[in-house]
Protein 1
Amino acid sequence: MEIYRIPEDLRFVNQIGQTLSAEEKIKLEIALIKLSQTQTFDQLLFWGRIEGTVANYYIAIGLNFKNNFEFPHKTFFYTANLKEFQNLPPLNPEYKEQVETFRQLFSGQPEKILINITGEDGDQPPADQPNPDEPQPVVKNDDDSDVEIKPPPKNFLEVDRLAYVVNAIEFECALLPVGAVRLTPTHELRYNDSFEGLNLQEASKIINYQHFRAPQSPNKKELIAQDDALFHYDFFDQLDDHPVGQWSLQTDSSKYQVTIRNLQWPGFLGYHRAGTRIFGYAYFGDGIKNVDLAFQL
Amino acid sequence: MLKEKLQEVKDQNTNLYEHLNNLLTKILLDNPKNAFELFEDYSFQVKSNGFKFEKYDEFDNAERSKIKMDQSIQQKTLKLINKINLGTDEEPQEATQTGYLPNLIEESYLYEWAGIGIDENYKIFKALTLLSVTKQASKLRFWGKIMGRQKDYYIAEGIATTQVEDGELPPEVEPRGTGVNTKSYWACNDLLNDKDWIELPLITPQQINTSRQIKYIFTGNLENDVITNPYFFGKEKHLLKAQIVRITQSTVIIPKGQYILREGEPREIDPAPEYKLPGFHDLKTLNDWIHFNQNILNCGRLVHLIPSELPEGIEPEAYQKQIENADPFENRLKPISNDKNAWKIRIVGDTTDYNPLSKDTNNKVNNGVIIIKSLVWPGLVTVYSNKVLSQLYYGYGYKATNNHFYPKQPQQVQSEQPDLPEQPEPNFPAEVPQQPQD
């Protein structure tokens, strides 16, 4: 969601019953503008809100199109108190399976420990694990070429789970209308300035929307690598992932405002106003994946 | 020489020389800042629009895409938000009295503080007003929106006053107006179509119990079959009603003290005499709120069914005690703080105490908003602010579960009994006519 258009674009989010309160809007705008001044991005977007039991997380995403081959670089930021955005920590692939089993709500406290490695406060960590407080012994290879330093084991905090969830949602759900972006001759991604929006008929067909991620399917990978890719607009993956039926495209009563919702991540929606350049996506939910979807259809 | 060369590269309408002319003219006219990046775009646009540089002052960019709204949608929208007209355009007919309908527009403002955005709230409000007039429903309110795969449902809750004949009902079904079928619910897909409000049918205890075992996302079509295991006997409209009733029975909450138990009949409640809605500070914790409705029993009804023919040797009272012990009632008006991990309460908004307009400074005015969200039925939210209490559901209509959902396996299809070994038919000697005895 464009950060200067949040109040207007919230109209689409209303279709799933979510919105930002007046207080949230004011604080969010201040925090986003502060973020855009400290770090420069080609585009800063408001990604969404994950509700927790005590507090909510607000996520922003910075995109860098220039100098990035084929797909812009995405940087995520989060804040729980709406005062200042901080970087989301990088993903640690070790805990991937465990995170997927977490089904409880987020609490809203980023420092909350979810998986305890170092033991309770005050207890001694197990003797075989290096103590995180002591300086790590530097392990030198025999030929003195590379110096390996073992990173101290850290607890898995809620902010790490947040990083997983945000990256997963972005990977599985982020979408755009076909034609909204194009490649330059140097194979960088840009917004298509001549995009006038999908017309009424096209906007209600899910085939006219595509994922907003580096293409995963083999034919799209080929397409984007070709030299004439800049004359095509559909070089991203189609919205045809398994389980089939996880996407729900609906309009409001005027038929102009189209939302595309994801049933695996209830709370995610992509939106577009037919005939205009207004499009985007956002997530307003509790951050829990609906893994039972296959049984619900 | 170059010009002829370029003119040789031809297409149907134009040649390369002309195209370059047109393209450069357009770029000079528009003077964009990043012409280099947009060069291919311009080329594409000039080709598709047929821009000709000689006629550049006639060319109007705005021709490109005119927004045309469907005429019928325009008319329907206007009809919905104008004054209700039950007759036709030529003979307007005023609407007769409508029943009670809370002002959704004011309540939307409260819900916005809770982070719940009601889409198209004015259209919903007018559609409900129309429903109230056409169905003569009293005590109507917007119950919420249940999202579906293809379409969503807008749900209205009320009590229909028009008499409806239900015919013979099986004994375990609670008749209209009692038990789980106390309130009527109407569902609508398209707000602009006033005929679209369909009343949801009565439901049976069996349907309630089956709905407890399945997890389903609605499609948006009330007449669809629901294919699940255990099999849900009924169409989507029955399942929708079952879920709505389950949600309502377990999540309607009121401030403590607004109702009291009736003496002698602890299952019944009465409004407390001389009760005033408390101010902001008395409702800030979960302890101050209680359940309003009875919960649904394990058998799928609100009240146990006493069959008319009891087994021999058992008194009716003893029998009643027996089934009540097997399937006990929960206390009415129990506080919601007893429900573990089921509620989340937040306070938002401006919580300063203001002095009221009148000289009485004891009752300060506080505009804070108290939000209580259900964690068991995500999407259910209750808001309270300044003496306005309201409740809404915006969700997909299923419970939040911590464990993965595994549907019950269908029963094993039993193998056929092996055929009995066949015996040869005993051949009785054919009746031999008796020889006449000599």
Protein 2
Amino acid sequence: MSRRKNSESIGNDSEFGDNYVEEPDFSDPEDFVDDIAEEELLGDILQHKPKETGGFDSIIVVDGIPQVAKEEKKPGSDQKTRLEKLQNIIKKLYNSYGTITNEYWPIDANNKTKGYVFFEYKRPEQAAEAVKATNGHKLDKTHTFVVNLFTDFEKYANISETWQPPEPQPYPDLGNLHYFLEEPDCFNQYAVLSDAGGSTAIYSNSLPEPTLIEERKLWTEKYIKWSPLGTYLATLHGKGVALWGGEKFGQIKRFSHPGVEFIDFSPCEKYLVTFSPMAESHGQPGAHAIVVWEVLTGQEKRSFSADRTAAVWPALRWSHNDKYFARLQRVERKDGPVETISIYETPSCGLLDKKSLEVPGVRDFSWSPSDTIISYWVPEVNYGETPARVTLLKIPSREVIRTKNLFSVIDLKMHWQSSGEHLCVKVDRYNRAKKEKDDTIKYVGVHYNFEIFHLREKNVPVDSMEIKDKIMAFAWEPVGSKFAIVTSVSNTSNNVSFYCVKSGTEPALLKTLEKKACNHLFWSPRGQHIILAGLLNLNGVFEFVDTNDFTVMGANDHFMCTDVEWDPTGRYVFTAVSWWGHKIDNGFWLWTFQGRVVHRHNVQRMCNVQWRPRPKTLLSERQIKNIKKNLNKYGAQFDLKDKMRASRASKELIEGRQRLVKAFTEYRNKCIELWKEQKPRRLQLRDGVDTDSLSAGGGEMEEESVELIVKKEVTIIP
Amino acid sequence: MIAYTTDKAMGNPCEIFVVDSRTADGLNAADPIVKIPITNGPKVTSMLWGPLDEYLVTGHESGEVVQWDLRSGKTEGKKTIMTHEHSNKINDMQLNQDGTMFITASKDHTAKLFDMATLEPMKTFKTERPVNSASISPIKDHIVLGGGQDAMDVTTTSSRQGKFEARFYHLIFEEEFARVKGHFGPINSLMFHPDGKSFASGGEDGYIRLQEFDPAYFEFRFDY
């Protein structure tokens, strides 16, 4: 058997051998020089060429470790030496970033550890993560880790001696970003997001009709937002945020933050904060949820990870001048989590004084709109054992300006007045608190207090005022010293009360308007005028009130209205029905501040309409007074302009109409000609009946009077 | 001659029939003068005769308007012109008095005025609600539109919101100048009286309203 196989195989071989032709030699001739570089041919494959890891990329150096003497281990004892304890603690920390394959604890001449240790990880990425996460980690009060990659040392040692200045980059001229302020007739701009977010349009609020400035489809993927001084328009996309501005709304800057959901500008437009909840779970390692960017350069200044418990946006709150920002955090400490207010200063974005403000139990804080002062409150502990407290703190000195203890507090809300002169604290108070079976607390006898802090007075006096009814809404007058509240007297009707604030006395009630269908208040940004709005379940009724004499200037309604937006000058108001709230009838109406409807626009699937904000006026107080005095003179000029504009508009309208009529009558004449020509055909089709001259309902009625004898009666007259 | 269309139902496609009404046999659908099947296209929702019985104009569920030439053959009907001006279903089409123009009312919230011969759209009248019916006045340059919400949504929203009004627009300027309230359900059908002095409207609420015009209506003039 085997032999036959053998012979077969040999046979095969010989067959092959017969067919075997010598292959040509494919190797290059000896003196052939390859004139194509390897990179060009195989560039993309070369990138994946497995490189020898220098071996040093996965090593990190941790400096700043306490120096511990290397003790001799007592034979037979289980107790760990101090060195071993230290090693265990540190190793536990670093094990979480990857598998440590090697460690080296150098010891100096005195048998003490030198204070630094080398760790080698299995992979360079683990080492990089460890560096990022633990650099600056505080082991205890006196020891802070300084962690670096081993390769970093080489890099730093090799910095060239001669310093070359960086090349100046060409200055991209962005044009006049404030062109919209130079509008000669002072028309404000507004942005309309319609078509469920698919189309964004910018209009100028000109009279008599708004003019379209720019319209783009799919300008944003989520929504748009104006910057606080109106310079930029921010759009949100899947990859990040883009800023647009200038006359042509060109792109000014781009910020890459995948999955961004919310953005916030700092009040002076210097910084932009973006929040992407997905960044930490889905993004690259090292990506953070909250990022602070500098707007002018586009650089990322600092990033934070999102606190799981914080559910309120904006998470970072800015002081009015952009110098500080602060956030509320729960920090893990040795004896449990502690609430802190961390204040950072710009432009370094470092923690102010390198220390957060530890305030156990702090619930909320807010900045004053005109000074760098923070107000925060701490709720009461154990049903009044320790009262609730409101504190005013000056930054950066951390000097406590004022505190106030409040008793029997359920909840608290702080409202600053926009000029920073007053702070109103609304306190919900109870008479008695009962602890229910399931550990919830039931409050009996809830009533409300307002504590008004007067910041401009010496020692910040506080005035108190009590309100019995439930408070639905509160609003300060933006310029001035009044505030308005909506109290609900019964289920259907609310009262609106206006108070005037003066230091030294409790707020004085100026007027109460009764039985108003109102659940929101909108003051004009210039003060004095207010809209009492009944939104949501009250179906959009409005009353325009002049608070100088409390007259109702106008009352009207916009069915199912969801938003009310005053323009930054206080002359016009939009009321809008947003597609996000209500699926049909979307559009916005423009009103004057007196309550007269100017325009009604119906826009398909309109999401929202936002006025473009204006920066603060550059005029001084005296100049403003001067203008008000000479208003008559200016008034005459404006009246003339308005008349000319109106007549021009009507002239245009009339000319337009005349053109339309001419075109149409020409067309109709042609049709009538054709129709007359077709008349014989028509007669033929209709058996000779001339339908053209038939009129309906007939002039062909004839009247006929018929007399009928109904009854015959004979009476005999004697 | 009678022209009628069948709906797409029970497996039968939508078809246009033209039958002879003079004889009893002619009315039998088996032997029509012309039969036009619409197998792949959107179904017909409205139809008008052309001025000299030469062609039909049909409005479809997709918003198309098609002119069919009837003279060509028995079972053919040649599509002569087709336009797609509306983006949603055409609810109604009505002729003007001399048959040279017609107006279409569509679910896409607009009504359009077309020229009969060329199917060219000449005017567009915009509203915020689906338009169910439109009519051209025989004596003045006015048109009236009626519509409202989809019948399905009516009971879930208040009657005020529904805006069940007949709206009058100027034919040439496309501007609305008057509204007549009264229906509390969507208006499904409207027509001017042939003498132009009144109009009739029928609605989902089950009421037919006959409205005569005041002298003010006849004296109303647009400035131009």
Protein 3
Amino acid sequence: MATFKKSGGLRELLESMYSVIALLFILVACVELCDAAAAVDVYRLIQYDMSGSPFGSRFAALNHHAASLRFPPGADLSRTVLIIPLREMNMTFVREYITQKKPLGGLLFLLPEVLSFKHGGNKQVYEKEKMKKLLAELEQLLVHSNIPYPVYFAFENDDIDTVLTEIKKNDAMGQPATATTGGYKLVIPTAEPKKVASPTITNIQGWLSGLKADGDANQLPTIAIVASYDTFGAAPALSVGSDSNGSGIVALLEIARLFSLLYSNPKTRGRYNLLFGLTSGGPYNYNGTQKWLRSFDQRLCESIDYAICLNSIGSWDNELWIHVSKPPENAYIKQIFEGFSNVAEELDLKVGLKHKKINISNPRVAWEHEQFSRLRVTAATLSGLSVAPELFEGTGSLFDGRQYVNESAISRGVKLVAESLAKHIYGHQGKGVQIFADESSLAANPAYIRSWLDLFSQTPRVAPFLSKNDPFVMALKKELADHVDEVNVQHENLEGIFTFYDSTSARLNIYQVASVTFDLLLLLVLGSYLIVLFCFLVITTRGVDDLISLFRRPPSRKVKTA
Amino acid sequence: MTMFHFFNCAILTFGPHAVYYSATPLSEYDTLGTSVKAALVYLGTALVKLVCLATFLQVSENDGFDPYQELLKALIGFIDVAGLYFALTQLTHRNISQNHKFQAVGLGWAFADSVLHRLAPLWMGARGLEFTWEYILQGLEANANLVLSISLAALASLIWLRKNKPKTLIPIIYACAGIVATMPSITSYLRRGLGWYFPKVVGFELFTSLVMAFISWQLFSACQRPSA
């Protein structure tokens, strides 16, 4: 009986011990990342492969000590993260580090808070041109290099500023932070970045039918107005592209709204169909436009009189440019350009013509109209830029935020395009007739432009990171559907030579850590304290003899008996 | 690194208790049972205090010093003293001299106090990457607490266990016991009412604990002397 009870009790004891041990393991594995000195939102540099070659920052997780630019020369930085605020950026230094592939633990760039679309608001940007130039240079360097360590962008705030001043103080004293000297540690606990599986690009097209006279069997001619809505930038989570190409899309939506007003009444409906295209894949040599055009049937293609592409019309002062690929002597080009120039004169602004030949063997497509031209459709791009941008240049960079665009510039652009189109559609040859005059019911609505521009300036739109049914794309489709007769959405896969990796934003924890030497020193101090305490207590309670006897070996028996 | 820091703070907080036990004759006379019983009595006292605090105290929005609330807390703190009385007098101890009895009870009391108040924050906090001085200061506070507990146990044993005390010393004994018993209220007044920072408060605690220990040692040895 007794043994039975005993074994049963023993089993119970063992079982309870297992649960205790399990609980202990859970506790041990528990939260180690508690309060940090600061926690900041950070945004990672883009990581992509183009035709197999890797570009961008190849790592995401970070767990290194921090240093500023004032590190002692000759220090080993392979396990250090450099924190570089934009004001103190030394371009040659960064370029040297990246191009010569010097070992580094990581890079953290601090951008002025005014550029943040979450907190910056509409504050004034000082030294706009200088910052724009610097950011453009930095972005081009980073986007086209292969960087084997994490690169992050963050916005300056009070926490991170205090941390940075402390780091600078420590560095100035000649002690960069390492495991043995304490300092600040930057930790970003994310998983390794994974490939984005089959990135989709979504093209939205809207069709506004013209007035077909009874008994007219022929297809009405079509005019296409196109703009691309997606962006690409060094930090995809920050790439809002207010000017490139938020301004183009906002102008397109406004033009669609104005013409839908005109076309709603059969008396004012023109004899032209209007085709609105919101294309994606713009930064990738207008891949989306190409796929969209390929999906047209032959009759539609032939019926397009001409296409106007809108690109970056939000930050110009007096002069807009019309870029064409057919020679300016071409009759159609002449007609388009004359139409625009006449309207421009009336609106008191200048329009210039720029011709850039297409090189079929060169895969680089700098303007959207080139995709049309390759299919023998007359097309032109209206843009505030005078020079064709390079690959991944100016397609939603870090400075391209709300402060960079000018609503009135967009309004004037809208008026220019709308009036020119109307002149062509309704055939007014004379001057002095303004259909979309200010103060009329057909005037460009500044509130509409402003609200859509604000929305665009808060939405990063890098195509691989937009899902198939992304709410923003659906919103664009819905808005277009309000203005046109028929809307179609086309989903395509992005061209195979590009591969993108996820993990675009994370949370950075900054810890103030003590060095190993400090812990060892503390251990030494505590050990000696306890020993002193022990000796003190033995002496006071038992006497000094007892203390000494503790250290003397007990006398062996032989000695005692002897 | 972080477990290292936890280990350091742990030996600072709990080491002195073990050292005290092994260094003094307590280990020779095997008074562990007494200490354990005292620790359990402390646990019971803490529960009773918790219930009383929950019932009678109001939660204040600001962190200021409210005299009425603090008075209430001090009164509830005297439950501590009652618990100590219980541990000293009512528990059956094996035949150990009074000298060792109060030390064992004080040790057990202080150890239970440290474990209950300081182990959990230490485990949760000291293992993190972020370094603060807080846990080292907490360890020093635990040391001061040990000295204070032993002095309080000594004075309490003088009050209740020793029958023949010199008449002149009795008021002093009661005064010192009162001061040591209200130590928690005094420290909370310093922290909240005067706004002292934690290092300053810990320094004050260490200083007063040494002073009170010295005074109670003198009183104890004075009462040891056969009364005239």
Protein 4
Amino acid sequence: MSVRTLPLLFLNLGGEMLYILDQRLRAQNIPGDKARKVLNDIISTMFNRKFMEELFKPQELYSKKALRTVYERLAHASIMKLNQASMDKLYDLMTMAFKYQVLLCPRPKDVLLVTFNHLDTIKGFIQDSPTILQQVDETFRQLTEIYGGLSAGEFQLIRQTLLIFFQDLHIRVSMFLKDKVQNNNGHFVLPVSGPVPWGTEVPGLIRMFNNKGEEVKRIEFKHGGNYVPAPKEGSFELYGDRVLKLGTNMYSVNRPVETRMSGSSKNLASRTQESIAPNPLAKEELNFLARLMGGMEIKKPSGPEPGFRLNLFTTDEEEEQAALTRPEELSYEVINIQATQDQQRSKELAQIMGEFEIMEQPRLSTSKGDDLLAMMDEL
Amino acid sequence: GGGLEGPCEPGVRRADLGAVHWCVLPFRVLLVLTSHRGIQMYESNGNTMVYWHALDSGDASPVQAVFARGIAASGHFISVGTWSGRVLVFDIPVKGPNIVLSEELAGHQTPITDIATEPAQGQDCVADMVTADDSGLLCVWRSGPEFTLLTRIPGFGVPCPSVKLWQGIIAAGYGNGQVHLYEATTGNLHVQINAHARAICALDLAPEVGKLLSAGEDTFVHIWKLSRSPESGYIEVSPLP
């Protein structure tokens, strides 16, 4: 598994999250200045230098659970609040969108172009804030430095690592279903037409050579697809035509986006249950989370700016209904971290944990030990 | 490592890029598994582990993935590729767990993707193993108590995820969707097929009939008939509908 995958996963999922939030803020008619503040706050938290430093360290991907906790925190980095059901839906949409983009990347290396597409659009959201723009540009440079020199083989490994992360996720998204890029069983449709990847020839030709390397025979055959040559290569520069459309904002038209929970549980039940045997990585995950959180400078809502609640659904009733009917196997079992009085915890960690909101269904069991791992076992 | 008791971690669930391969040797069949942790060999009942080799990650930088990939049997040897480009050659006894790492082949600088073998074709054609890597480089070997590197076929910037060897013909599938056929003795390219619109996932070969199958990430599967020109002896191919 590639240990260079996390930055790509995080930045692209983060980009999708911002696209969706931007669309919902407009759909819910949130005043422009509030909407801008929310996006600015989230983006500046996301691209915080310390945060990025942690992110870019070579490491394994962490679980969907751990990652979701980071995004939940990120989504609440400003004056906006989301209920569980809306946060669940947001995460579903984010993950399915990026899964789609990874699957459809013509070349494994194109996942970098997808990332640049996300960053380009993010820069559009924060045009009036030069400091945040600088942070994003800095991340661009880091991406180029780390990924610019990777071989095709290393990108193939990154691609496989990402696809394993997304394996068995088949949540149906109405926009994908309507556009016929997703089937009713939640599987994506792989197109067999269009331009071939840059560096690939259009299939259909066989060339035969003699011992001197001279071509002696040529045969054409029917490939079955309907491919055309690639027009040009996307740009990997700070500014440039990426050519690839994957990773650009597909929500820019005001389309209500619904997710439909896949009714049959037979596909999901076997995979979403993570092993309940003690996982030596669990401790590492929590440490990683704690370090990431440490890099997030969360601004508490204060002063005259009152907070507001964003709804990912069209009505409050719909949101309530979604919370009640969400299939068991798709629950994210959000990590419930409680403040402890353990003196050995670092000050920073204690401060972070103190700021965490207790999640909707708190499982308070103070008779259990202080150990974070023990608390995880209760879930 | 060796012996019957390799480290087992039943509780840890990690998504792993691994491979499984039945190695058919003259006197026994072994099941070989590779993972990021190492190489395990089982008796053909799938139950008795006879050998465990932990991967040496000593030279790896923190950013390198450590794994084994590519498994093939030739004679009484089993060869397994690794992340560093080294190919580990294990000498397998007729029975029992006394398996020995006999050689580490150096020929590749990038992770091994696949290994192909076939029984030696007689006196003229001595190549019986081909190894492929992430850079697209192919190495052609003759097996034995000491393996000999016969030829190198350079890559061209894309990985070679899959390679097959049949009657002195090397079939290689590449990340750019092409299938190449090379003469194993000379390393010369004789056929180049623009076969797929995405990376080739796998090749498979039916040795009795000389049919090659290619599967690509473009969702297509193609079948090719391999042959030699009666006049020149050069490798030829024809697509099968």
